[in-house]
Amino acid sequence: MTELRASGFPVDQVRERARSGAAAVFPAASSYGTSLFGAATAASSDVLESARLVPPVFVPRRLEKLIELGREPLYGDVSLSTSIGGFASSLPLYLSAFGSTQVAGDGLGAAAAAQAAALGIPMVVGENVVPVHGHGRTGGPSAGTLLERLRAYGDAIPDGLGGVVVQQSTEDADAEVWNLVYSDPSAAPLLDSGRLAFELKVGQGAKPGLGGMTLVSPSAAASLASLYAVDLPLGASVLRSSSPGTFTPEILRQQIRLMRNNFPRAGVWVKLPPGRDVASAASVAWEAGADAVTVDGAEGGSGWAPSSFASVGLPLAECLSRIGTPAGCLLASGRMWEGTRVAKVLALGARAAGLGRAALLAVDTDPDFGLVRFVEALALELRMLISALGLYQADALTREDVWFPGAPARVAEEVLS
Hints:
One of its GO terms (biological process) is glutamate biosynthetic process. This protein has helices spanning 11-20, 47-50, 60-69, 102-105, 108-119, 129-133, 146-156, 170-174, 177-183, 188-192, 218-224, 249-262, 278-287, 316-323, 339-347, 357-365, 370-388, 409-416, and strands at 52-53, 82-84, 87-89, 93-98, 123-125, 164-168, 196-201, 213-216, 229-234, 237-241, 267-272, 292-296, 330-333, 352-355, 402-403. The chain is α/β, with parallel strands linked by helices and 417 residues long. It has two domains: 15-22 and 45-209 and 247-416, Alpha-Beta Barrel (TIM Barrel); 212-243, no CATH class. Strand 13, helix 15 and strand 14 form a beta-alpha-beta unit.
């Protein structure tokens, strides 16, 4: 296990879930009958974290389920299967974009891909993999390459579930990543089964308004100078920066049209940063034909970002509030590591939640089963929470299932309308 860290993120809790699976959802079994437990009061500036799920007294959906089953329904009767951006998924979860960072490249990216496939959930391959590690080739070295992740996922995915989404940033466009994948024989099974999509990266939560950043050696910086800005020494390394891309409503529309025209057999996803006009951007994307729009809240992680950007961008709860009732498939990412937070974003309009840092930490803890066990715990929580709300489908949650402290019901309703 590496010394993988994530500042401000519940690393220990995630690792425990990766080790123990569903058992980590509860207090230690050894304390049963000898200890008293109560819910801790959340004290957080994260609005989504402090919000509460609020079950109703009257549960007509439970009565419907009782009649359907011929018995009282339990949490195990909750179905978590859903559709995510055109893909069938066993859970309202997807593997968020891992780019070219060393963390994702040291075998963890491929291990995460294999476990996500085994779970039957979609996977997004992040930016910069091809420019930094290469596309890979059949019969040749593939460690760290895009082909390695595609193979790992394709070898383990069950029939009819999941899908691969290949993200493209400005430097990926220069490397013609989508063209490479679309014409690669190894991607043919995904295309033939309708399980390949491309994601246009407009931005991310950890550093909205900035492009990809990573540290390289001085020798590597010299070779990259014609492609990137590599003019800022940081200790023994050099900062390599890329353009974030330039977008207006019309540019975004044209980009989506080009994706549809050039890659007609692939789905179209768009990833948005937590900008103040995120609702307008999401509307433009859906109107132009995007199959899914991912909103990466300011809580989203990154391999490398300026510390000052902890105060830049809207929190995920505010993004979802501004978007309101989504006009298409909305996906949410940013600090997703346990079922309550996932249930809240589902109630606020998201179809599914992205696992980023939590997934990498889980795989880092156990490269063979860490992510599977982690998701096992998260899925158990989701079933219990959705059942407690008197519902039995992941997409049945609504905004009335969430309460925000400090705001009367009518005020919260107005804010979220």
